[in-house]
């Protein structure tokens, strides 16, 4: 698809979104006519130059993004970007930079709305919205910086993987997640979510019964997250994920030993984590709570938890016990003891200790 084709696609999407919004808001023909003549609220977007206008629109989009109003941001950006021409974009480097930023915000909005639609059960709309994000991040889109296209292409593929896993199409999901990981590997640490991609692949492979591979992806994600936090605290001299050199003992020695509690930059599709399947009827392997609280699970907690789950599937109980203990410490630091996951992890620890009596019991603080 050429830039002109992208233009047409955005204009069609913008018109469809406006029509749906007008229908729901009960807009009259007169109101629509006034808007098309430039009267009403749209008249406030009339700075003297194109660059000033785009800066104003970018500021509006940032406010909507801050408020979480992604649907409104999509309507705004589709309307604006659907009328920008290549000649206007490439006439001034400043204009090109702002336009690229607006396209980035549009792709982020598409992904955010698509995941919300997926959660609401609006599957066709979710897929349509993700495909729009995929179209914008194609190499032919000269309006958008190449580096941004690659980063957001990986995000979109990751979410398409989540979509197809939700639709019980694991092999299609796996292909998208592998594509996302391939892009992120080439970006060498500049990607948005490499640890999250490994965690999503871990969950999918576990669902497919491929627990040894799933464990490896959980461990890679864990190394990334622990290494990143060590760097933030000044405990590593290098930057970028290629420099990960932590041994398994260092990773499993406990995040909190180095003060590694607290949120990380990476985010992940936690609703898909910890839901891997083993043998039918096997209830001994835990899963994340099927409640809204699962979405609050932080990446580090999820990584330790998923590693522990896969170790249980593989009957590596000592390793699984250690991972559960680290997950419990991370959960306490990041989510608190009142979180549903804290109690579940603690029960998993005790279940292993009952079965494997040679394992030294974990001394949980203030255990009831």
TrEMBL record:
The keyword 4Fe-4S does not apply. InterPro entries: TPR-like_helical_dom_sf, TPR_rpt. Residues 16-40 have a biased composition (Basic and acidic residues). Keywords: Repeat, TPR repeat. Residues 1-46, 274-294 are annotated as: Disordered. It comes from the Eukaryota. Coiled coil: none annotated. It holds the Pfam family TPR_10. PANTHER family: NEPHROCYSTIN-3, TETRATRICOPEPTIDE REPEAT PROTEIN (AFU_ORTHOLOGUE AFUA_6G03870). This is Kinesin light chain. The lineage of its organism: Eukaryota, Sar, Alveolata, Colpodellida, Chromeraceae.
């Amino acid at each position: 698809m050429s830039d002109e084709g992208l233009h047409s696609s955005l204009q069609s999407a913008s018109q469809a979104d406006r029509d749906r919004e007008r229908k729901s808001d009960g807009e009259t023909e007169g109101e629509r006519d006034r808007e098309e003549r430039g009267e009403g609220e749209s008249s406030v977007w009339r700075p003297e130059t194109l660059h000033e206008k785009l800066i104003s629109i970018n500021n509006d989009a940032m406010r909507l993004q801050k408020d979480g109003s992604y649907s409104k941001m999509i309507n705004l950006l589709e309307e604006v970007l659907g009328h920008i021409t290549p000649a206007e974009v490439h006439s001034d480097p400043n204009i090109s930079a702002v336009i690229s930023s607006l396209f980035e915000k549009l792709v982020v909005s598409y992904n955010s709305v698509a995941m919300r639609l997926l959660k609401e059960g609006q599957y066709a709309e979710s897929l349509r919205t993700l495909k729009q994000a995929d179209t914008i991040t194609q190499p032919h889109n000269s309006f958008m910086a190449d580096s941004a296209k690659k980063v957001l292409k990986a995000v979109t593929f990751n979410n398409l993987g989540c979509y197809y896993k939700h639709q019980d199409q694991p092999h299609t999901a796996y292909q998208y997640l592998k594509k996302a990981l391939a892009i992120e590997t080439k970006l060498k640490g500049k990607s948005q979510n490499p640890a999250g991609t490994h965690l999503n692949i871990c969950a999918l492979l576990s669902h497919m019964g491929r627990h040894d591979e799933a464990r490896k992806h959980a461990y890679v994600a864990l190394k990334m997250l622990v290494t990143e936090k060590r760097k933030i605290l000044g405990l590593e001299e290098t930057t970028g994920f290629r420099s990960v050199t932590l041994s398994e003992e260092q990773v499993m020695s406990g995040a909190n030993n180095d003060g590694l509690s607290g949120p990380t930059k990476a985010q992940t599709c936690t609703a898909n984590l910890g839901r891997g399947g083993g043998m039918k009827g096997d209830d001994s392997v835990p899963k994340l709570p099927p409640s809204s609280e699962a979405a609050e699970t932080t990446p580090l907690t999820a990584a330790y938890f998923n590693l522990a789950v896969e170790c249980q599937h593989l009957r590596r109980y000592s390793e699984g016990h250690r991972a559960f203990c680290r997950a419990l410490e991370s959960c306490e630091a990041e989510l608190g003891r009142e979180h549903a996951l804290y109690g579940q992890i603690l029960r998993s620890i005790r279940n292993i200790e009952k079965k494997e009596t040679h394992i030294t019991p974990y001394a949980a603080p203030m255990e009831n």
